[in-house]
Design a protein that fits this description.
Number of helices: 5
Distance between the termini: 23 Å
Radius of gyration: 13 Å
Structural class: alpha/beta
CATH architecture: 3-Layer(aba) Sandwich
Shape: globular
Number of domains: 1
Length: about 150
């Protein structure tokens, strides 16, 4: 089975963070990863877009009960009806967590990843979480860290 990565970040990402997330998704897709997100806008949309355009399978773990809430790049929408509790479902579903940008939902996903012993990679994200996470400075470094070569 393919490796799975969650790309997490704010729904209101600015252009720079959106671009970083899109490139992370694209790189993951090129390497054959399944890309999971929260399925909505911002970083979630950007990562899904990059991944889908590079041929990856994209999965959106949605907070609401309606699959039509998913962004246009999600191929497999999962409507949980769980609100923010879906963050734990998202993180339990993957091998690696890549945080791009900052948001409080992002912080909770990073915390779940650390708590569950997942590889957590931070790109312009919550470096304050401590030394258990891998801090990177580019999408390429994030991909290397996800693959275990950084």
């Amino acid at each position: 089975m393919a490796k799975a990565a969650a790309v997490v970040g704010p729904h209101d990402a600015d252009g720079r963070v959106y671009g970083l997330a899109e490139q992370v998704g694209r790189l993951l897709g090129r390497e054959g990863w399944v890309v999971f997100t929260g399925g909505l806008g911002g970083v979630m949309e950007a990562a899904s877009k990059g991944a889908r355009e590079s041929g990856a399978l994209t999965v959106g773990i949605l907070p609401g009960g309606d699959t039509s809430e998913a962004n246009a790049y999600v191929q497999v929408p999962v409507a949980t009806g769980m609100g923010e509790a879906r963050n734990l479902v998202l993180i339990r579903s993957v091998d690696v967590v890549i945080g791009v940008g900052k948001g409080y939902g992002t912080l909770s996903e990073i915390a779940f990843g650390l708590r569950l012993g997942k590889r957590v990679i931070l790109l312009e994200s919550w470096q304050e979480v401590g030394s258990e996470a891998i801090v990177v400075s580019s999408p390429e470094e994030a991909m290397n860290a996800a693959s275990g070569t950084l």
